């Protein structure tokens, strides 16, 4: 049997209940025990605030829009292709790319927790981790899309991918019309984080 | 039955509120809570399935009341006591004891390498792949971990006992139902399985919509 506690016996209840004080108490205890290095925590935070984020995914998408061989390889084996660009890592060990088309719109959720492709998109936004998104996106994806300002054509099917395993999904949004002359670098700026989760569209310039 | 975290399809949660990309951490303590959790994870005393299950085992009252990173901290504190990394007395502010695990502490210089190396979940397996892309399959019902009563599992309630079709084979992956409970990897074939929204929901939004889940072979039965 898993270790189920009576509510008042959960060890976490011994910590301060205010979350900022709670994390401070944990960090202080673990630092004094020699189990964590506060400088390593700074490094983790800096990595996900400043180094790893949706710009990585936008690079992959813009390249897929402009390079047919890259697009084909990405759809065939996304893990290998994004690894070559340096976007392998924690929470992105098994990648699959999903291409949105006029016929099919893909969107991604994790109803059981908050699985998300960190090396390509960074830390998930608050709404992705919210009960509302986890509960509703599988049952009423079109209503959820409307809350992001997205209305799909009536003949477009929605495929919602519930990330229940260690496979992480990256949505390749449709390339905006009239962008044939833009460079890959210019196209990157049109690729939003939400469009790569399937909750938005790429920006029409 | 599963637990409180299994909320796919639930009614009553209100709107989804979009937010700008710049807001990685809304509060300083959010980043700190994430970093402390990863930092303790670097000690190698559990795997991702163990830590997910620790959050799922929070009481339904706490799970519902806590924000995202509060769930992380509570799961971490509970798990650290269960694994003997800290004592209840230490959490309560008592004397701090030396730890044998201190030699495993990850210094700042190692962080980029650790984050970049990840932790792949695919493993060799002697379980034969029995389904092919295009096959019809039915998901388990009754729902629940087959090895441990109340244990960790990754089949959500809304997709239990439903017929779908295999759309991808992902190779053989660690079985969370075993891995979360120290029962080894027990790797087996993992598939993406598509279900018509009209077979999952009483009022589907559109006749062509589908929901796709990644499911292990032992969650699936053949459909003739």
Which features characterize this protein?
heterodimer, A: 205 residues, alpha/beta, Nitrile Hydratase, Chain A, two-stranded parallel ribbon, 10 helices, B: 224 residues, alpha+beta, Cyclin A, domain 1, SH3 type barrels, 5-stranded antiparallel sheet, 8 helices, globular
Give a short synopsis of this structure.
The complex is a heterodimer of chains A (205) and B (224). Helices cover 41% and strands 12% of the residues of chain A. Chain A is α/β, with parallel strands linked by helices and 205 residues long.
Q: How far from one another are the termini of chain A?
A: 56 Å
Question: What are the segments of chain B in which pLDDT stays under 50 over at least 5 consecutive residues?
Answer: none
- Biggest β-sheet of chain A: count, sense, barrel? 2 strands, parallel
Work out the radius of gyration of chain B: 20 Å
Oligomer: heterodimer
Q: Biggest sheet of chain B, in brief?
A: 5 strands, antiparallel
Report Rg of chain A: 20 Å
CATH architecture of chain A: Alpha-Beta Complex
- In CATH, the homologous superfamily of chain A goes by the name Nitrile hydratase alpha /Thiocyanate hydrolase gamma
* Total discrete domains of chain B: 2
* Helix-strand string of chain A: HHHHHEEHHHEEHH
Question: How does the helix and strand content of chain A classify structurally?
Answer: alpha/beta
Can you describe this structure?
The complex is a heterodimer of chains A (205) and B (224). Chain A has helices at residues 19-32, 38-51, 54-66, 68-76, 78-84, 118-121, 131-136, 141-147, 184-188, 193-197, and strands spanning 94-99, 104-109, 157-162, 167-172. Chain A has a single domain, classed as Nitrile hydratase alpha /Thiocyanate hydrolase gamma (Nitrile Hydratase, Chain A, Alpha-Beta Complex). The longest helix of chain A is centred in the N-terminal third of the chain and has 14 residues, at 19-32. A two-stranded parallel ribbon of chain A has the order 1-4. Chain A has a two-stranded parallel sheet with strand order 2-3. In chain A, helix 3 crosses helix 4. Chain A is globular. Chain A contains 10 helices and 4 strands; from the N terminus they run αααααββαααββαα. Chain B contains 8 helices and 5 strands, in the order H-H-H-H-H-H-E-E-H-E-H-E-E. Chain B folds into 2 domains: 28-117, Nitrile hydratase, beta subunit (Cyclin A, domain 1, Orthogonal Bundle); 136-222, SH3 type barrels (Roll). In chain B, strands 4-3-2-1-5 form a 5-stranded antiparallel β-sheet. Chain B is globular and about 65 Å long. Strand 3 (157-162) of chain A pairs parallel with strand 4 (210-216) of chain B, so a sheet runs across the interface.
């Amino acid at each position: 049997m898993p270790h189920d506690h009576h509510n008042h016996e959960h060890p976490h209840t011994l910590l301060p209940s205010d979350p900022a004080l709670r994390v401070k108490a944990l960090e202080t205890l673990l630092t004094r025990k020699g189990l964590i290095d506060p400088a390593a925590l700074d490094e983790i935070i800096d990595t996900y605030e400043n180094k790893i984020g949706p710009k990585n995914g936008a690079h992959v998408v813009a390249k897929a829009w402009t390079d047919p061989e890259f697009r084909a390889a990405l759809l065939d084996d996304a893990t290998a292709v994004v690894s070559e660009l340096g976007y392998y890592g924690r929470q992105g060990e098994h990648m699959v790319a999903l291409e949105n088309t006029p016929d099919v719109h893909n969107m991604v959720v994790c109803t059981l927790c908050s699985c998300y492709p960190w090396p390509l998109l960074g830390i998930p936004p608050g709404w992705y981790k919210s009960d509302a998104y986890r509960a509703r996106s599988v049952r009423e994806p079109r209503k959820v899309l409307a809350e992001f300002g997205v209305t799909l054509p009536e003949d477009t099917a929605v495929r919602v991918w519930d990330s229940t395993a260690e496979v992480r999904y990256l949505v390749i949004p449709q390339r905006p019309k009239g962008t044939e002359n833009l460079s890959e670098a210019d196209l990157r700026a049109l690729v939003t984080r939400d469009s790569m989760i399937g909750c938005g569209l790429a920006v029409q310039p | 039955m599963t637990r409180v975290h299994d909320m796919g399809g639930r009614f009553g949660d209100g709107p989804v509120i979009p937010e700008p990309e710049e807001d990685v951490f809304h509060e300083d303590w959010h980043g700190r809570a994430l970093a402390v959790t990863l930092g303790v994870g670097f000690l190698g005393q559990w795997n991702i399935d163990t830590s997910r299950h620790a959050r799922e085992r929070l009481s339904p009252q706490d799970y519902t009341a806590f924000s995202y990173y509060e769930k992380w901290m509570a799961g971490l504190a509970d798990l650290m006591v269960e694994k003997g990394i800290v004592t209840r007395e230490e959490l309560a502010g008592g004397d701090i004891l030396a730890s044998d695990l201190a030699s495993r502490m990850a210094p700042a210089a190692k962080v980029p390498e650790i984050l970049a190396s990840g932790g792949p979940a695919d493993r060799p397996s002697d379980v034969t792949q029995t389904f092919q892309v295009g096959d019809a399959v039915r998901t388990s019902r009754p729902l629940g971990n087959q090895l441990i009563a109340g244990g960790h599992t990754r089949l959500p309630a809304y997709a239990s006992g439903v017929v779908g079709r295999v759309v991808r084979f992902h190779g053989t992956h660690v079985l969370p139902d075993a891995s979360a409970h120290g029962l080894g990897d027990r790797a087996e074939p993992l598939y993406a399985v598509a279900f018509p929204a009209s077979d999952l929901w009483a009022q589907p939004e559109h006749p062509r919509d589908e929901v796709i889940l990644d499911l292990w072979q032992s969650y699936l039965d053949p459909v003739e």
